[in-house]
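User: Hi! I have a protein structure encoded as tokens and I'd like to know what sequence might fold into it. I'm fairly new to this, so please keep things simple.
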């Protein structure tokens, strides 16, 4: 586990706690979709329009695959710092600690960012020595199961939108050139913060942002910290659920639906006493894929809200920005009227 000195907390961002109503009423706010039910496609579309975020149950990802990867992740983050750092520095892939990207963002977090490329990942995971193959095998099993779930969700989404081409979204994740990523985030406990916090403030683990990809598939342990931003800019805490997955609409999906779906702004707050571990699969298209509103979703005389761009162009722009920036801003089309 990473231990950060008390002095280093001064460089991190703090925010005021949400009021208790916002924090505890979120149980009834977060949409829940049972993927085994016939109404799932309708509920997914509604959730994407209103929140850009929802929880899925009966998702089909084996708990064994989840538990094995979580165990391997805990083993990795429990290694001494000098060993973990051999899997870095993040460029942007690999092991990172405190610094999020190269543009000045910091957080109370350490992470391992991996490609959808097992040969590359093996190099980063070589710090495990003889157990590298085990980690790689567990990682492959988990990613395959989560990608399958993500494609099912995207196909239900297409059905709910009455799109004839059922795999219009999912084919981008299944493409052999898909630029999907996988991230393990570990938020160590911060007892100094818990003891010294007299102003009702929380330490930021991962600052507010939207995800640039099509869809994000998140699973975490039973420690709280994740918050999403509602349309009225109210932040609400998401109650943790060990057995479920949380789904984020990404910027690319917002563009493909011409703004009908919203890319959810979210953040993570550090916990004073408990360690938080999250595992996120970011479903992305091939680098050469052109991202633009789908004609089949455009109503008569409806104008595009966004300029067309390739995923490579958008990804490059996103990595050059700060976390809280409006990454879609430079690609928006503003009416002259």
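Assistant: Happy to help. Inverse folding works backwards from shape to sequence: for each of the 337 positions I chose a residue that suits the local structure. Here it is:
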């Amino acid at each position: 586990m990473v231990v950060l000195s008390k002095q280093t907390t001064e460089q991190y961002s703090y925010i005021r706690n949400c009021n208790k109503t916002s924090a505890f009423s979120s149980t009834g706010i977060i949409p829940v979709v049972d993927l085994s039910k016939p109404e799932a496609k309708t509920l997914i579309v509604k959730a994407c329009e209103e929140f850009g975020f929802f929880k899925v149950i009966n998702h089909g990802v084996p708990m064994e695959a989840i538990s094995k990867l979580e165990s391997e992740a805990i083993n990795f983050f429990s290694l001494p710092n000098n060993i973990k750092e051999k899997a870095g520095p993040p460029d942007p892939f690999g092991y990172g600690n405190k610094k999020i990207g190269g543009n000045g963002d910091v957080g109370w977090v350490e992470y391992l960012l991996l490609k959808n490329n097992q040969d590359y990942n093996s190099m980063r995971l070589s710090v495990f020595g003889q157990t590298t193959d085990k980690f790689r095998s567990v990682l492959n099993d988990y990613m395959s199961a989560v990608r399958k779930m993500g494609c099912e969700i995207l196909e239900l989404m297409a059905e709910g939108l009455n799109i004839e081409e059922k795999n219009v979204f999912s084919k981008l994740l299944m493409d052999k050139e898909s630029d999907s990523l996988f991230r393990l985030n570990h938020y160590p406990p911060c007892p100094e913060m818990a003891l010294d916090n007299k102003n009702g403030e929380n330490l930021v683990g991962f600052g507010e942002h939207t995800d640039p990809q099509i869809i994000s598939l998140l699973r975490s342990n039973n420690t709280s910290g994740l918050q999403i931003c509602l349309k009225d800019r109210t932040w609400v805490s998401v109650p943790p659920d060990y057995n479920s997955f949380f789904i984020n609409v990404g910027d690319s999906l917002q563009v493909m639906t011409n703004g009908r779906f919203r890319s959810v702004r979210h953040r993570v707050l550090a916990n004073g006493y408990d360690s938080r571990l999250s595992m996120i699969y970011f479903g992305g298209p091939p680098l050469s894929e052109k991202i633009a509103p789908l004609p089949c979703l455009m109503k008569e005389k409806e104008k595009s809200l966004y300029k067309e761009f390739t995923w490579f162009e958008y990804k490059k722009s996103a990595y050059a920005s700060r976390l809280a920036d409006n990454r879609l801003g430079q690609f928006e089309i503003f009416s002259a009227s």
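A useful reference point when you look it over: The chain has ten helices and 15 strands. Feel free to ask if any position seems puzzling.
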